[in-house]
Amino acid sequence: MNPAKILVVDDELELERLIKQRLRKNISAKEIQLIFARNGKEALEKLQNDPEIEMVLTDINMPEMDGLTLLKEIREVDPTLKAVVLSAYGDMNNIRTAMNTGAFDFLTKPINFEDLAATINKTLKSVRLVRENLDQLHQAQLQLIQSEKMAVLGQFVAGVGHEINNPVGFISGNIDLASDSVKDLINHLKLYQEKFPNPGSEIEQNAEDIDLEELLEDLPEMLISMKIGTERIISISASLNTFSRADTASKVLANIHQCLDSTLMILQHRLKAKDKRPMIQVIKEYGEIPIIKCYPGQLNQVFMNILANAIDACEEFNQDRTYDKIQAHPNTITITTEVSQDNQSLMIKIKDNGKGMSEEVKSKMFDQFFTTKAVGKGTGLGLSISRRIVVETHGGSLSCNSVLGEGTEFVIKIPVH
């Protein structure tokens, strides 16, 4: 744990020296870090520039901005900050005003350093408890918002899939009937041609105008293409239904390969070739893996976040490369599934050959709200929520290996049992 940052605000240099001396063991043990300011104005600047400060120890009587004014400003900067005021013994009017203004506690001068140590511990404990509770509440709110968004998306996708199924089923069934009918008509026409080889100039001219021979060859091929197209739509609809399946109160058996394939189907439009680059190749190295109990809807969300980030990384890497260079060294996303050596976990590896990450970015990538994307293109929530789903909800792990300029690999481990 990082040392607790305490801002000491007092215009007496001697007090600074004395506090440093008396608290040197705590400082050496990296339990606390002291920051000093000479007045309320300077203190306010430090608070605004350093959100990690947890506690303020301030005198009341100071030049430029006194402690009572500073107390009012602290509440505006960060309501979770706790302030302890210092005042001369007997200055009860100012102490009472400070407590009414929002001070957490007070100490009198000359300072009793045993009291100071106890007050610091009590104050820091209170601050951390409040911040932890707020952080948990914030994370719960974000999770609810994200879950609601996914639920709405799931309902929309499921609705689209359902609406597609009916007309496509009708078309697919009629194509089969139409194919048989066309075969019968062609056979019947050929029989006419055999029995009546000289049908007359008008019929012969019409046959030439419509290019009858080529038409008889192309018509069955057209129906076959239509059949393939409807089968493709049916496959897309099935993928939409798989991706959007709602999670129940308990885990259910799911085929992870189906989850991955349905997510890839949703992202297919981003993988296709564009004016500035060839298509992004997806290499599937699927192993023999068991069906596992999980929350498939939530895992689809994880796969969506990681695969979308992989596509983003490839496109960002392409910004300084020409079409020919990209074609010579194409963008690839490799998905590998396997069972861990101890047979306890299912491993899903998603690797891209995009931009990669620096050590600094890698150290922060799972932090809430951290993003390297432009404003409006990233919320900084995708990976933090993904890790929570994998680690907290499924008892697994989510790790990352990345080399700047070479690419990134995410490794998801989900317990098999």
Topology:
Layout: E1 4-9, H1 13-22, H2 24-28, E2 32-37, H3 40-49, E3 53-59, H4 67-77, E4 82-88, H5 92-101, E5 105-109, H6 113-195, H7 201-209, H8 212-243, E6 252-254, H9 256-266, H10 268-271, E7 281-286, E8 292-294, H11 296-317, H12 323-328, E9 332-339, E10 345-352, H13 359-364, H14 382-393, E11 397-403, E12 407-415
Parallel strand pairs: 1-2, 1-3, 3-4, 4-5, 7-9
Antiparallel strand pairs: 6-8, 9-10, 10-12, 11-12
Helix pairs in contact: 3-4, 4-5, 6-8, 8-9, 9-11, 11-14
Summarize this structure briefly.
This protein is an alpha/beta fold and 417 residues long. It has helices at 13-22, 24-28, 40-49, 67-77, 92-101, 113-195, 201-209, 212-243, 256-266, 268-271, 296-317, 323-328, 359-364, 382-393; strands at residues 4-9, 32-37, 53-59, 82-88, 105-109, 252-254, 281-286, 292-294, 332-339, 345-352, 397-403, 407-415.
Question: Could you describe the 3D structure shown?
Answer:
The strands form 3 sheets. The protein has a 5-stranded parallel β-sheet, sandwiched between helices. Helix 3 packs parallel to helix 4 and helix 6 packs antiparallel against helix 8. The protein is built from 14 helices and 12 strands. The chain is of the alpha/beta class and 417 residues long. Among the domains are: 4-111, Rossmann fold (3-Layer(aba) Sandwich); 245-415, Heat Shock Protein 90. Helix 4 (67-77) links the parallel strand 3 (53-59) and strand 4.
